[in-house]
Amino acid sequence: MTLDKKYVLGKDVKILIVGLGMIGGSYASCLTKQGYDVSAITRSAETIEYALSRGIIARGAASPDPSLISSADLIIIALYPHTVAEWIGENQKYFKSGAVVTDVTGVKGSVVGAVQKILRDDCEFIAAHPMAGREKSGIKYSDDTIFRVANYIIVPTDKNTEEAIEICRALGETLGFARISVLSPDEHDEMIAFLSQLTHCIAVSLMCSSDDPTISRYTGDSFRDLTRIAKINDEMWSELFIANKEKLLFEMDNFLENFKALRDALEREDRDKMREMMRTSTERREAFDKK
Amino acid sequence: MTLDKKYVLGKDVKILIVGLGMIGGSYASCLTKQGYDVSAITRSAETIEYALSRGIIARGAASPDPSLISSADLIIIALYPHTVAEWIGENQKYFKSGAVVTDVTGVKGSVVGAVQKILRDDCEFIAAHPMAGREKSGIKYSDDTIFRVANYIIVPTDKNTEEAIEICRALGETLGFARISVLSPDEHDEMIAFLSQLTHCIAVSLMCSSDDPTISRYTGDSFRDLTRIAKINDEMWSELFIANKEKLLFEMDNFLENFKALRDALEREDRDKMREMMRTSTERREAFDKK
User: Fold this and answer.
1) How far is CA B164 from the centre of its chain?
2) Strands across the sheet with A127-131, in order?
3) What pTM does this model have?
4) Could you read off the pLDDT of A142-151 as tens digits, one per residue?
């Protein structure tokens, strides 16, 4: 694969995307538009047909086709976390020597180690997390414009080469992400537990707290904004939560403690404590506006 | 005051606004623009000067001026909840006979009863809650465009006449609110505890749960949306929370129970329970999109 001095992905790179869901489909669409040769493997023949008919991919298969796999320089696994290592274990016998493999999963600790342990020595796995999502799943909802406001996190370990990290960065740049960062698997999973998983837990719990449909009549922006992410792919997110269980439980308990502190301050009408928490939150939230 | 058959506020209605904060200032600005005669009383002489110099009010005073009060047909009290009854008690001796008094406070149970109990028999208090707000307070942040996407809730009791309710509705229409509803004080306070106060408690507690400023680098839309309301006027909101203590504690405990159910399901890796909650939240949240 060509990687010039500025670490731009050469147009001769042959890309294989495994799993054409919303994210895999958005990757495919974006990379094809930019002139790359993009193939895909996904379980549903209907999805392959859809992607071929719309020119999202150049070729595809509904099963792990050895010739598609063996011609790829860059393999992007866009499957659910628990199937990433499994798919690689079963199909790495077809990998081209020197192939670089990356992923899109939202948790890393449980994925990266497992994959790097089993992967052939002549290939390299470099993990990445595109922090982009939509409320809907499936290739029909793919949309590569979501990357333009999103973060792309590269998650290397000490098993990764500088070159693979730069290839991964070049992929993130090609996809047009707004910001590209590098974090260790542990740092990534801590950050994601607090910023993403905890907020989804809150939104889900809040929507489960009232079964009165008439309240939507009085709903303002604050409630709508807070619960937008309560529309959630239950299959994927329950898996992500369990895959990051320890860190998410820590953040949930930490939030519970703060919420209870506010609740107890209200019960005893401790206005000073309530105001102190409100001033802390106001001050901290300001920092998030400046970015 | 003139109220024609379609219940439009006649332009001869003399309006007095007590308290020129963000909301009082926005009312004044909007009503003046529409040609009404608007006076104001607020504690700060500087605020009166500001409002006069910008043509937001026709006249004003930094103390309860008897001639301003006695010439008003419609008095809008835009003070903090605990001072509404106090201000009326001290100044109702100046009220014109037949004057209609309304308010803008975000809790009603503790305000409406207290005011209606002390008010002179020849005047009428009809409560209202403009569900509009901004993160900033003070007349400099007044902005009457915020009403156009907001709810206006009229909160009558059995002490109110049909005419006063219609005057209040006409005021809401004049101000340009998107939706106008009628709720009892109890219904209002229950709705506001869940939709507004609980969401602010969640946002404040969440911001208090991390003091790591580097996380803002990775923050996506979901966290930003969820914590927008964590920037909060601590003086006003702590008062609103305490004024609605019983109902807010009920909603906080109800949310805690649901959040803990999700937390415990995660701890025991009960995927079915987690997915059930996620499906419930997804389904309920859909209803909020349709409006």
Assistant:
1) 19
2) A127-131, A151-155, A179-182
3) 0.90
4) 888 989 989 9
Q: Tell me: domain B14-183, CATH 3.40.50.720, correct? A: yes
Handedness of CA A244, A246, A250, A252 (dihedral sign): positive
Task: Give yes or no for residue B171 having a pLDDT over 70.
Answer: yes
Distance from CA of A25 to the nearest CA of B (A): 21
- Give residue-wise pLDDT tens across range B85-131: 999 999 999 999 999 999 999 999 999 999 999 999 999 999 999 99
Q: Which residues of A are less than 8 Å from B246 in CB distance?
A: none
Q: Is A36 on the interface with B (CB under 8 A)?
A: no
For chain B, what are the domain ranges?
14-183, 188-289
Of A241, A203, A138, A141, the residue nearest B284 (C-alpha): A203
Return the H-helix or E-strand segment holding A92: none
**Of residues B115 and B221, more confidently modeled:** B115
Kindly determine whether residue B262 and residue A231, on different chains, have CB atoms separated by under 8 Å.
no
**Overall size of chain A counted in residues:** 291
Which CATH number is A188-289's, of 1.20.1740.10, 1.10.3660.10, 1.10.10.10, 3.40.1550.10?
1.10.3660.10
A41 CA to chain B: closest CA distance, Å? 28
User: Under DSSP, is residue A244 helix (H, G, I), strand (E, B) or coil?
Assistant: coil
Q: Are the beta carbons of B208 and A280 separated by less than 8 Å?
A: yes
Q: Taking CB atoms and an 8 Å cutoff, what residues of chain A touch B235? A: 275
Q: Answer whether A258 touches B (CB < 8 Å).
A: yes
Query: Measuring CA to CA, which residue among A255, A262, A254, A257 is closest to residue A278?
Result: A262
